[in-house]
Structure formats: structure tokens, C-alpha cells
Amino acid sequence: MKSLIWKDLYNIGHNTWSMLFMLVVFVFILVPQNGPISYIITSGVLCGMMVITTFAFDDHAKWTKYAMIMPLTRKDIVRSKFIVLFIFSIIGVVSGTILGVAGGAIFKKINLTSMNDWMGLLVAAGMGLVISYFFGCMIIPLLFKYGAEKARALSLVAFVVPVLIFLGIYYLLLMAGIVLDDTMVLIVISISPVVVLLWALLMYKVSYGIFRRQEF
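^ thats the sequence. predicted structure below, dont judge the formating
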């Protein structure tokens, strides 16, 4: 399975400079207005979405048909995509943290000597990883089902629907007089990795079920 992961990392390497350029541009768009925290989360999501590009490369080269005659299992192929997504998400969060700190210092949005600011950045990095992986896991089954081109359009729906659901729950809580205080936010942050892990396992089973039934 390592070869599958290296294949995707090698293929995506050709887009490294364009992605880096995009991340630098977003520093000047997001950091002056919203600070480095939103930028870190955005960077994680943007880099996580590069998993779509790996499917596009596979579709263009008709690689999956070739893979079926190799000593690879379908589980290996599905697992590798989830691992690659996790690697991309980590790269996005790390890059976003580095560039976000630099941009925050330039635009005076953070105090480099403040421990609270650094703790906020670390929390943002963790949440960026969780959010990026959550949404990426949602898109992978669509990619296996419909391919990269059709899934690109559907991925927008996959992003918007959960966001609307979360916002709806948030406003319902506000209407009910329930305020999310620091304790509740800390609880949500603490359990979010477990929730995303369970979500990833579910999406893996869905993706494998889709891929297993496909004929090549």
C-alpha cells in the first residue's frame, strides 16, 4: 500500500508550487480581515481537497483498470486514499500555521510573545485538521462513485449541507437560550477527533462498498 501512497504524493508534487502560490495569496485575503485562525483552517481544507486531483490523475491515466491486474486489493486502494487525504490535511495545517503566523505578525493580528495567542493557533491547527479530514472523508465516496469530474460539482453540496446543518443546530440552541460557553466549546473540541475517526471509518466502509461493486 505504500506504493499507492507514494504514487499519489508524486503525482500531486507537480501542483506544489501552484498550491503554495494560492496559500500565499490567501494570506493577504484572510489574515488582514479575520486573523490567522480562519486562515489555518482554510489552508487545511484547501490542501485536503487535493485528494480530488489524485482521482483525476487516476481517471485520466485509466490507472484503476491497470491496478486490478496487480497484486493489490480493493481495500488497499481505498485505504490509501484516506491515508493520502490525512497527509494532505496535515500538510495544509502545517503550511497554514507557518504562513498564518508570518501573516499575523506582518498584519499585527497576533502577539508572538503571548502564550494565549499561541494556544489559540495550536487549537486552530487541530480543528483545521479535524475539519479538513471530516469534509475530505465525505467526498471520497463520491469520487469512487462518480469519478473526479462529476464529484467536483457534488463536493460543493457535500460541503454546504453539513455547514447548514451545523449552523441550524447552533441557531436553534441560541433560540432555546442555550449559550455555548468556554466549557461546552472545550468539550466539543475534545470529542471532535473521536467523532471524525468514527466518521472516517463509516466513510471508508461506504467507499469500499461502492468500489467493490464496480466492474473494470
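Residues 115-175 form the longest helix (61 residues).
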